[in-house]
Structures are given as structure tokens and as C-alpha cells.
Amino acid sequence: SVDETRSIVVRLGDVAIRCDPKRVEAGTVLDATNIYDNVAVSVSSANVLLTNGEREWMRREVQEEQNLYIVDDFNLEATIGLSIAPSEVGFARTRVAVESEMMCVRLTREKYLAVMRFARAFGRSVREVVESSEVDFASLKSQAIQMASNAMAVDKSVSETVSESVPELNETSTPSEEITTKLNSPEDDLQHSHLLSVAVHITGVSVLIEEVSTANEHMAIVKTAIAGLAVSVEQRTFDSDVVVSLNRIEVKDCLQSLSKREERFLVVSKTVNEKGEIDRDTEQDLFKVTVAVVKPCSPDYASASSDVSVHVCFGALSGGSERGE
Fold first, then answer.
1. In the chain, which residue ranges form alpha helices assigned H by DSSP?
2. Cβ neighbours of residue 85 under 8 Å, at least 6 residues apart?
3. Cα(230)–Cα(221) distance, integer angstroms
4. Tens digit of pLDDT per residue, the chain (325 long)?
5. What is the torsional sign of CA 44, 45, 47, 53?
6. What is the DSSP string of 42-96?
7. CA neighbor of 15 nearest in space, from 75, 70, 57
8. Handedness of CA 82, 86, 89, 90 (dihedral sign)
9. How far is CA 136 from CA 123, 144, 145, in A?
10. Cα pseudo-dihedral 244, 250, 251, 252, rounded to 10
11. How far apart are CA 268 and CA 251, in angstroms?
């Protein structure tokens, strides 16, 4: 017989939705503060728990006393803005902003083994459902690929149609000059409007490996932090920019830090000198990737070095540092 069962509980937190429609008078100068009808969604106190035999596990004090947290409380906010004046090419028609706090994961040996058991059981269940299902997943995959291919073909045909609408180049003008001239009219400015702006900032994810005594005393062993993930997307009619950056990664040896009374890192995204001292003045992202896509109809095409450009920049990553100061 089964005396008790354990469950992983994902609490989505308290959700609040606020609408902020804008009302502007005729003649008002539009800017980023008054051009968007905003819908704000906030999620607070979301967390993940691993229950035990305690019947009152839903109570906050029991969760803390029994050390049931896998992911501590964290908050998330998202704002979607819809432009009230889509013809204003200087502002995106749709603006999306997402901000997330640091998500702190706390694992003991017992929690880790329990999570792995759940993961393996979930994987087996999914595999059994797929194998016993009458749905032809291979056919669905081929259909999805075909749909993506068709979407790309439509996008290309639209670009070619707009290209054909540009008059033939005269012999005295270079192609880049002629295209730029033809696309600088007000009508073409409307065609080259700012469609979408997305800004996502995730403060980070912290994973703490610890041991907890029977008296609920916590002893940190290793703490890993991946912090400062930012994603930016700017989509216009004929070009787009994507920027992805990560600020830092660090793995802290908590036991050594406690015994030496100074921070000791196994891995840190900072430069370390010959004395093992971390350069705290270094302010550089661990990596940053910038992707720019420009179509021939874009006003920026003449000045672009390539249809697709990718720039990658890496910062410092050091291992086995001895001192944190």
C-alpha cells in the first residue's frame, strides 16, 4: 500500500490585468507616453513546490517550515501596447515589454532525486501517449514544414511585388541612389512602417544546492547564477533587428566562501589577475549577438553591407578564481 504521495505543484501566482486606453485631443503631440493603449499583465508570487506527507502543505508557514520550495516566489510583468496612430512611422504599431525577477531554485539531494523521478515518469507517459495515439505525428511534422515554406514564399512574393512597383532605374543613377530616392516619399514611409517592438528582460535564474538539517537549518554548498538575459526585436516592413545578450554567469563555492570569509568562485564572468583577484570594474556582457536582416526594398539597403549581418561579441569567463576581492 502507498502511505503517502508527493506532487510537484506549480503555482501560477496572483494574476492582475489592467487596461489603460489613451484619450488625446486633436493637435496633441504624440510621444511614447500617450500613443499606446496599454494592457498590463502582472503575475506575483509564482512558485514551485514539492509536497510531502504534510496535509496542510498549502499553508505558507508549513511550506517554509517543511522546506517545500523548489522555486521561490517571483514576479513577472508584461505590457502590450497598441498604437492609436498606426500611421506614425516613428512608433511601433505594437509594443511588447516583459520584465521578470530573479527566479531562485533551491535543491537538496532529496529534491533533486524527486524532480528527476518526476521528469523520467513524465517522459515515459508522453512517449506512451505518442506511441498509442492514432495521430500521424510524422504527417503533422511535414505539414508544419510545408506551412512554414508557404509562409516564406508569400513573404518573398510580397517583397518582389513591391520591388516591381519601383520604376526602372535611369542610366545616370546608381541602383542604391535610385531605390533610396523612390522610397523616401511619404507613401513609401508608410509602407516602411515600424510594425513590432519587443523588449524582454529576465533578471536571471539562480540555482542553489544546499543541505537542510532536521532543525531546518540551511547550509549552502554551491550557488549558480545566470543573470541579465535581454532580448530585443524590432520589426519593420522591409527589415528587422534582433539583439540577444547575457550579462553574467557565476558559480560560487559557498562552503569555501564561508570558511575563507570571502567570496570564492568556481566560474565567474569577470577577468581575474595573477593574484586570483576578480576585476570588479569590468562592465561587459558575457555575450551579445546582433542580427540584422535588410530586404532590397528597405531605405537602409543602400548603406547595408549585407542582406543578413550577424555580430557576436564575447566578454570574459574565468574559472577557479581564488579570491572575490
1. 60-65, 109-132, 137-164, 175-182, 186-191, 254-260
2. 30, 35, 91
3. 29
4. 456 677 889 998 899 999 988 888 877 888 888 889 999 999 999 999 998 877 888 888 888 888 889 999 999 999 999 998 888 888 899 999 999 999 999 999 888 888 899 899 989 998 888 888 777 767 777 777 778 777 655 555 555 555 555 454 444 444 444 444 444 454 455 456 888 999 999 999 999 998 877 777 888 899 999 999 999 999 988 889 999 999 999 999 998 888 888 888 888 888 776 666 677 676 788 999 999 998 888 877 888 888 999 999 998 888 765 544 4
5. negative
6. EEEEEEEEE--S-TTTTSHHHHHHTT-EEEEEEEEEEEEEEES-TT-TTS-SEEE
7. 75
8. negative
9. 19, 13, 15
10. -150
11. 6
Query: How would you classify the pairing of strands 94-100 and 194-212?
Result: parallel
In the numeric block, which cell numbers belong to residue 155? Answer: 513573404
For the whole model, what pTM was predicted?
A: 0.72
